[in-house]
Amino acid sequence: MKPDPTTAMTVLLQQINDTFPFDKPEAEICAGKCTGCPKKVLEYVSSEVDYYQAQLDDKQTPLLGDISRLALIAKKSHRSLARNKLV
């Protein structure tokens, strides 16, 4: 059985928070040669996570398109961070 949209978004947000290095110091993120800007990528993903978490906290039901969009952002961002050896 498929989860409801609220549960699916909650699980996705938890997976993003567990996977992405939001708590790494800037000195570690910006060390060495960068492909893209991992600091900006992390800031962008963090703002998206905060936005959707605020919506869930306000008891708003996310749309399936919102879940899909956030999953795509996370996937592309993860790939970018992997190129910079941060995940």
Write the layout of secondary structure elements.
Layout: H1 5-19, H2 26-29, H3 38-57, H4 64-83
Please give a structural write-up.
- This protein has 87 residues and is mainly α.
- It has one domain (1-9, 36-87).
- The chain contains four helices and no strands.
- Helix 1 (5-19) packs parallel to helix 4 and helix 3 runs antiparallel to helix 4.
- The protein starts with a helix and ends with a helix.
Structural class: mainly alpha
Order of helices and strands: HHHH
State the end-to-end distance. 31 Å
Helix content: 55-70%
What is the approximate shape? Answer: elongated
Stretches where pLDDT is under 50 for at least 5 consecutive residues are none
**What is the number of helices?**
4
The count of β-strands is 0
Supply Rg.
Answer: 14 Å
Number of folding domains?
1
In percent, how much strand structure appears in the residues? under 5%
Q: Give the rounded overall mean pLDDT.
A: 92
Task: Report the biggest beta sheet as strand number plus sense, adding barrel if it closes.
Answer: none
